[in-house]
Amino acid sequence: LSTAIYHAFSSLCYFTPVLGAIIADSWLGKFKTIIYLSIVYVIGHVIKSIGAIPSVGDNTVHIVLSMAGLVLIALGTGGIKPCVSAFGGDQFEDKHTEERRKFFSIFYMSINAGSVLSTLITPILRGDVKCFGNDCYALAFGVPAVLMMISLVVFIAGSGLYKKSPPEGNILLSVCGCIGFAVKNRWKRSKHDPKRDHWLNWAEEKYPKRLIEEIKMVLRVLVLYIPLPMFWALFDQQGSRWTLQATRMNLNILLNAFLILVFVPIFDMGVYPLIGLFNFLKKQPLWESLLQVFNLMENEVKVQIPGNDLFPDAISSYEVSKRYIHSTVLPQSLSFVFFFSARFINGHNEGLNISVGGQEFEVAPAYGITPNKSIARGEYREVKCISSQMEYIIDLGLLDFGASYSVILKTNLQGIEVFKMEDVHANNVSIAWQVPQYALITAGEVMFSITGLEFSYSQAPANMKSVLQAGWLMTVAFGNVIVLIVAEGAELQQWAEFVLFAALLVAVCIIFSIIAYFYTYVNPKQWDRNSPGING
């Protein structure tokens, strides 16, 4: 479910750029669109922050506010995405091609610098700061709203320094009308009239030649984009499947955004110039149960279940069965006591209060059991264990990543004796195995995304810059849709999903290479000077 929600929200964030592009190119212009939709983005964060306050309504109200906030955030962030990059590109003259390329690199670096900071700071605001008696989600959502308002004020303050291209009417409506008329006209007249060089030329009777040529330019680029969602389908799993994989390892670290900050200047100043010299580029199942037996008696116990030989070996006093047993059949009654997923089991004759890693455990006497609680990894050598009459210090040792422990407390002459059982073994696969995959896919992102942003800008007609930027961003949206379909429909094991996505991406690379080979680069500025006006 978490994967589905994550990718559904990501998809929405990258479908809405089309709306932002339409508003910018057809109505408000890029500058005003950035301002107004940034305000929508801030309102979304404010609503999310209010929805995170426990005292505001019941659970239904919280869900409604959260969903409304997410929709507004998606509308705001998606709407400004194509406008910000295109607006930045507008600040450079035709002769400053190299400077514009560097701008897109710095622009992408700044985005990921923000990603690094937010990933580090937001969990601190949420977890380390307490408000309303719990984690402070309201603060975690509210701080970005304040920072966005500050950045918006700074952006507006520089208004007089910007080069602002005015909107040129409802260009998208003209594009759709032209395409529709061409298809309709070709269907009606192609049997009687001679063939034309391009199917869009069938719109010449109604639409100017310049508009038709501009649409051809855009469509040629959009055809190139068809295979690209597969890259984003794999890449955006860093926030879902890869994170889930990391939680099953023994450390969770932030890599992608940090690596982008490292790789962008390396590729900009090293890899791309080198490539240019050689002319390589043109620019657990539900039907099973998990059973484990603790022996809390003073002598060993032999466990026998009629019709099954699940526990062939005797279990010593205060020991646990040697292995987990997966069984599809469990008897309705057993003549011994066993515990599942217990954190502390109290063999003491008094109730105990135990403090571990900021968590409080109240354990009832006579084999009372506490619920499981999450504790940060660490060495816990001096843990306070307090009864009504005494205070004890117990040694729990290392509580490691991914493990689940049951701790049995037994009275002896010296006080309390500790028996620590490892119900679920600690993660023993290092997260360092993820470093190569993060490094490789980040290198791919640097070459892919920054180049794509610049390419989309450079190949778009002047009045369709934001529209084509939105087309580029929509490849991300469709990539997330692919993940949703596979994750929710295919029901594959995680390793099989990884193999599937990798194989599909290899196939897509081959297809894209073939399409790109036949693409002819266009200089829209040069074409503008040699073409008639849109009404000519």
From TrEMBL:
Subcellular localization: Membrane
A molecular function GO annotation: symporter activity
Matching Pfam families: PTR2 (PF00854)
Membrane-traversing stretches: 6-28, 35-57, 63-84, 105-125, 137-162, 217-235, 255-281, 467-486, 498-519
SUPFAM superfamilies for this protein: MFS general substrate transporter (SSF103473)
Keywords: Membrane, Peptide transport, Protein transport, Symport, Transmembrane, Transmembrane helix, Transport
GO biological process terms held by the UniProt record: oligopeptide transport; protein transport
PROSITE patterns: PTR2_1
GO CC terms of this entry: membrane
Topological type in the membrane: Multi-pass membrane protein
InterPro entries (UniProt xref): MFS_trans_sf, POT_fam, PTR2_symporter_CS
PANTHER family hit by this protein: OLIGOPEPTIDE TRANSPORTER-RELATED
Membership in a protein family: Belongs to the major facilitator superfamily. Proton-dependent oligopeptide transporter (POT/PTR) (TC 2.A.17) family.
This protein's name: Solute carrier family 15 member 2
The organism of origin for this protein: Scleropages formosus (Asian bonytongue)
Source lineage: Eukaryota, Metazoa, Chordata, Craniata, Vertebrata
